[in-house]
């Protein structure tokens, strides 16, 4: 049974999921217009694949440490299946790397609920967000969920609100060192341009709109079903919902990367899907639904490869 296999966390689960994603990545790069053997292409693609796989190694520790769901491999699996659905986004190395940094930041943000070493967690989370913004400028907006978490968990101490400023200074010092070494003093002005998408074609976003609708339905069901349980997980899920909303907004407002930014929403919705599967008691329904999801993802991935 597929559901029984992924209900546990074993090395074989990692091997299968990481192998599946590696294969998809290689196939997507192979069918893209850019040859991987061109000068200056091979190394960036290898680095992008490295960070893509590294993301999966962060998912389960984040779930376990922040108690977002029961310990299983479902979140990893759902993340991989969604990656297959939106396969072209893996070609954007900047999105992949910035998403990995955001996941590290998310882990620190969600850990604020344990009320231990909060100022250090806020500093680290902020630093990861600013580093992510150096790679992809729009990700600086993910400071918003962090401030929501500060308000919810530790907003009474003024220093907690100021720690992101300390992280910004540290990151700024690093950027200035880079600018000095490479004589690129216009980096900040040129990089943080925040170009807005001035057009909206509903037909071009039909797939994302369908994804948004289904995701919102799943999130609503999960929040309703978990509403009478402990508030710890509910608050964490609400913060993840904020991450999801911001990721969706970036898809529509960003001119440069557009739909590739859907990658920022995969971790939140994967956690919600995991919580949804935990509420299903009918084993046959769970198995059938999981099989449909896998088959659908593979079909869409195949379509992306031949398109």
Key features of this structure:
mainly alpha
Element string (H = helix, E = strand): HHHHHHHHHHHHH
Give me the secondary-structure category.
Answer: mainly alpha
Helix content: over 70%
Overall pLDDT, averaged?
88
Binned strand content = under 5%
- The count of helical stretches stands at 13
Q: Separation of termini?
A: 32 Å
Shape: globular
**What's the story with the biggest beta sheet?**
none
Which regions contain 5 or more consecutive residues with pLDDT less than 50? none
How many distinct beta strands? 0
- Evaluate the radius of gyration: 20 Å
Instruction: Please identify the oligomeric state.
Output: single chain
Outline of the structure:
The chain is mostly helical and 307 residues long. The chain has helices spanning 2-6, 11-31, 42-66, 74-85, 93-110, 118-135, 143-154, 158-181, 187-191, 206-225, 231-253, 266-279, 283-306. The protein has 13 helices and no strands.
Q: What is the topological layout?
A:
Layout: H1 2-6, H2 11-31, H3 42-66, H4 74-85, H5 93-110, H6 118-135, H7 143-154, H8 158-181, H9 187-191, H10 206-225, H11 231-253, H12 266-279, H13 283-306
Helix pairs in contact: 2-3, 2-4, 2-13, 3-5, 4-12, 4-13, 5-6, 6-7, 6-8, 7-11, 10-12, 11-12
Q: What do these coordinates show?
A:
72% of the residues lie in helices and 0% in strands. It is mostly helical and 307 residues long. α6 (118-135) packs antiparallel against α7 (143-154) and α6 (118-135) runs parallel beside α8.
């Amino acid at each position: 049974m597929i559901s029984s296999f992924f209900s546990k966390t074993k090395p074989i689960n990692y091997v299968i999921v990481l192998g599946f994603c590696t294969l998809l990545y290689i196939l997507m790069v192979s069918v893209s217009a850019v040859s991987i053997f061109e000068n200056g292409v091979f190394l960036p693609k290898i680095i992008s694949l490295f960070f893509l796989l590294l993301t999966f190694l962060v998912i389960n520790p984040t779930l376990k440490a922040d108690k977002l769901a029961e310990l299983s491999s479902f979140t990893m699996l759902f993340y991989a299946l969604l990656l297959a659905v939106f396969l072209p986004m893996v070609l954007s190395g900047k999105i992949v790397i910035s998403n990995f940094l955001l996941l590290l930041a998310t882990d620190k943000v969600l850990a604020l609920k344990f009320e231990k070493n909060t100022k250090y967690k806020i500093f680290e989370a902020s630093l990861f967000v600013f580093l992510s913004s150096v790679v992809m400028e729009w990700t600086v907006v993910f400071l918003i969920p962090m401030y929501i978490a500060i308000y919810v968990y530790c907003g009474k101490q003024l220093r907690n609100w100021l720690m992101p400023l300390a992280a910004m200074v540290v990151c700024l010092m690093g950027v200035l060192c880079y600018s000095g070494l490479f004589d690129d003093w216009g980096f900040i002005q040129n990089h943080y341009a925040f170009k807005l998408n001035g057009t909206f074609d509903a037909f071009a976003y039909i797939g994302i709109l369908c994804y948004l609708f289904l995701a919102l339905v799943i999130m609503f069901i999960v929040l309703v079903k978990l509403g009478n349980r402990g508030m710890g997980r509910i608050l964490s899920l609400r913060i993840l919902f904020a991450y999801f909303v911001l990721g969706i907004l970036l898809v529509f407002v960003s001119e440069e990367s557009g739909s590739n930014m859907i990658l920022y929403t995969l971790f939140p919705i994967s956690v919600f899907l995991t919580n949804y599967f935990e509420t299903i008691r009918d084993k046959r329904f769970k198995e059938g639904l999981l099989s449909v999801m896998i088959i659908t993802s593979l079909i869409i991935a195949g379509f992306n490869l031949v398109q």
